[in-house]
Amino acid sequence: MHTRTYAWDDPQCEGKYLIDRPPAKVAPPVMGQYVPGWVRAQGAIAADRQRVALTVQGTGDAPVVIESLRVVVVDASAPPAWNAYLGSSGCGGGVETRSLDTDLDAPRPVLVPKAGQRALPYEVSESDPEVLYLTAQVETRDVRWYVDLRWSSGGRQGSIRIDDHGAPFRTSGSRGRRVYEYPLGSTQWYDATQS
Asked: What's this model's pTM, rounded to 2 decimal places?
């Protein structure tokens, strides 16, 4: 199993983060594999939405059935009063074949398939892996969370914790925060706060 955090189609367009720094102290946004390192270096928190790509694959001859995916909230509090930063706005994204969404503002967040997509269980094998895209959305809270994946294979069953490489994912609402944007081709952050 492999987890990829901040798995946007286009991180320059879709990623939005809360950062406790003024614009002059925030590095320009980056793309692809460099996003997690940029997030760590800036001390950033995913804002409003966070998408995780989870690649699940069997390890032997027997198929593995993904029975359930359960969101576990470790803690929730008020969002920090930090600035919000995003790349260029107005970009579009595709819909994956296995996409599930959750609302972290809900008392008990649940992952549900996007419209028209098949619900769990899913079957995977060593030769037929599955990539699941999990999108968490939040407006009013700062949430630390992970996903508990329940599986079965033949007579065996178990669970795996899906998190940010040993730590909970962290996603926070950004409503009312000052917003800075880094348009494509730009050399600095611009104030894009709606008045």
From this structure: 0.89
